[in-house]
Amino acid sequence: MSITDQHPLYFLRGRQDWRDPWSTYTRLRDEAPVHRATHDDRSEYYVLSRFADIFDAARDTETFSSAHGLTLEADAMAMFEDQAAPIVMMDPPDHTTMRRLVSRAMTPRRVLLIEDAVRDFVDERLDLLVENGGEGDIVETLFKPLPSFVVAHYLGVPLSDRDKFDEWSSAIVQAAAEGTVTDAFEATLGLFEYAGELIEWRRSEPGDDLVSDLVAVGEELASPMWIVGFVFTMITGGNDTMTGLLGGAAELLTEHRDQRQVLIDEPELIGGAIDEFLRLVSPVQNLARTTTRPIELHGETIPEGVKVMLLWASGNRDEREFGPTAGQLDVRRQPKRILSLGYGPHHCLGASAARLQGRVAVEQLLSRFGDFEVDASAGRFAAGPFVRRYEYLPFSATTS
Q1: pLDDT grade, residue 34 (50/70/90)?
Q2: What is the DSSP letter of 387?
Q3: Backbone angles phi, psi at 40, to 5 degrees
Q4: What pTM does this model have?
Q5: What is the rounded CA–CA span in Å between residue 285 and residue 294?
Q6: How far apart are CA 295 and CA 286, in angstroms?
Q7: pLDDT digit string (tens) for 325-376?
């Protein structure tokens, strides 16, 4: 069965529209697993909402290409003309080659080396809540600065430059959500110039960071412009998504006190529970691919050369994959497959870093503020049609 855009079930959300998309996703899965819709420019695109279909599409990069951009715009790659495209907008084999250059620093074993630094940072930020009587905006206090801290660490940004780096990162992430990074011209220009200086510095003084790794392979494989693009990819891909995960996890722990108590009583379960939070929160709700051939699916024909939106967040709540409790939090679930971090060649490079940040943040929140709550009804969602995240979320807890 197909539902046309006369009564669209799917549309590009933002801000308040993000408050409760879940019932709509259920209808899409049940009534229109291949949903035909129309973009603002009147171009036709398709939406996949079931887990199995999204899972297969994510792994089939020959049919569902990323090389034409991850949004619905036909000219999504125009800004990269004559320049190296970001790694997330490449297909194999080019994607495989570039991914190999940066993956070494992001392995689970390497990521564990920053755990103490992450825990210290989280505790420092939580101290600010204690100083304020246990109240504050948890996004501004912790959930936004934490991923920026981790991204800066991996890029080798010196401590003396972190404040300015955070300002640029915040402005660029906000602009990317609301339009394009060119809307934050000064921040974009500042970061471009700084990235160039960072590259030159690491040529003469290499460190244990991703920029140094990329400089070391030579310009034939990683040009300065490509490295600058990678810096932007790290910022736009690693900051707001992590903020979205942490905000959503805090909301779920407030709503499900029984599940929170399980984690308080058995803190060793927190690490495994992060995938359950990733599944239900799905910070990246959807991203597009472009078909390279016609596809027959559920009685529908998806033509060649059209955009297909992979609705990760819907697939992550698909009863066909996760059973009748798919929409409920179960910190003991340990799902075998989730879509939140992508799959196949485009599995998120920062997956281990994301899980580490999530685990440490939840551990410290529950150990220091076991009775905390967030007021989701007073929370405010950020703009942007791809990442669902709170930009403001009131927090309160008892402090001793």
Answers
A1: very high
A2: B
A3: -60, -30
A4: 0.89
A5: 25
A6: 20
A7: 999 999 999 999 999 988 877 778 788 999 999 999 999 999 999 999 999 9
Q: How many residues does the chain have?
A: 400
Residue 230's Cβ-side half-sphere holds a number of Cα atoms within 13 Å equal to 28
133 vs 372: CA distance, rounded Å: 12
Q: What share of the chain is helix, strand, coil (3-state, %, to 5)?
A: 55, 10, 35
Cα–Cα nearest to 366, from 242, 234, 250: 250
> Does residue 3 carry a pLDDT above 50?
no
Do 210 and 238 contact (CB within 8 A), yes or no? no
Q: How far is CA 358 from CA 143, 183, 241, 277, in A?
A: 10, 30, 11, 9
Q: What is the DSSP string of 313-338?
A: HHHTT-HHHH-TTTTS--TT---S--
Task: Give the up-direction half-sphere exposure of residue 75: CA atoms within 13 A in the CB hemisphere.
Answer: 5
Q: Let me know: does 32 contact 4? Beta carbons within 8 Å.
A: no
Residue 55 near residue 346, CB atoms below 8 Å: no
